Automatic annotation (TrEMBL):
Intracellular or extracellular location(s): Membrane
Keywords of this entry: Glycoprotein, Leucine-rich repeat, Membrane, Receptor, Repeat, Signal, Transmembrane, Transmembrane helix
Signal peptide (from-to): none
Name by which UniProt lists this protein: Uncharacterized protein
Length: 227
């Protein structure tokens, strides 16, 4: 390639000169890999005119500035790797329209702001896609999704009512045990400690027993006479 004109490119091959018009041929480019070079400066806006581009790899360079805002024009792009540069600013919202994009790597830059959501971006759940950009927030970064973090949700259903019911049952059992212990020791403990009370108590029971034994036959005799 000998020189570059504003309207195209001049290629010298086998002694012949070929001039390619930018609009007539370059838009047909489908793959660009300039990774691991010493490229610097901003990403040329002209790259976004390559609507047939399927692969763009500019990783491991020294590129600075922002990602072109109209990068969404690369409607055929499937692989985009801009990792390990010095890019800054936010991720353009127009990238959401890249519906053929299935491989994305923006790691280790100086990008900031929220990661766009929608379309293909909802499928990029690998944290390595955006790691190394401390200023980025939102999924898929592990330190993100803070906007969606709220108070813990209470499970729906009757869980709360079951807990209240169990608490009431426990309180009833405890009250029953305390009442039984108090009543048992209040009566039998006293009888065990005082002999006079014990004699009086059992004497009273004997009288009640005699009264019942006398009363029941009397009732029976009375009912037989009535019949």
């Amino acid at each position: 390639m000998r020189c570059k004109y504003s309207f195209g490119y001049e290629l010298v091959s086998k002694g012949r000169v070929f001039v390619y018009d930018y609009l007539s041929i370059l838009y047909l480019v489908t793959s660009i890999d300039l990774s691991d070079n010493k490229l610097s400066g901003e990403i040329p806006m002209e790259l976004t005119s390559l609507i047939k581009l399927g692969t763009l790899n500019l990783s491991m360079n020294h590129l600075t500035g922002n990602i072109p805002t109209n990068i969404g024009n690369l409607e055929s792009i499937e692989t985009l790797d801009l990792s390990k540069n010095k890019l800054s600013g936010s991720i353009p919202q127009s990238m959401v329209s890249l519906t053929f994009l299935n491989h994305l790597n923006l790691s280790y830059n100086n990008l900031s702001g929220k990661i766009p959501t929608g379309n293909q971006f909802n499928t990029f759940v690998d944290p390595s896609i955006s790691e190394g950009n401390p200023g980025l927030s939102s999924c898929p970064l592990p330190i993100v999704c803070q906007d969606n973090v709220g108070a813990p949700q209470v499970p729906s259903g009757d869980g709360g009512e079951d807990d209240d019911s169990k608490l009431e049952k426990l309180q009833f059992v405890i009250s029953l045990v305390i009442g039984f212990c108090a009543g048992f020791w209040g009566v039998f403990g006293t009888l065990a400690m005082k002999r006079s009370w014990r004699y009086a108590y059992f004497h009273f029971l004997d009288k009640v027993k005699d009264a019942v034994f006398y009363f029941v036959p009397a009732i029976g005799t009375y009912l037989q006479k009535r019949s």
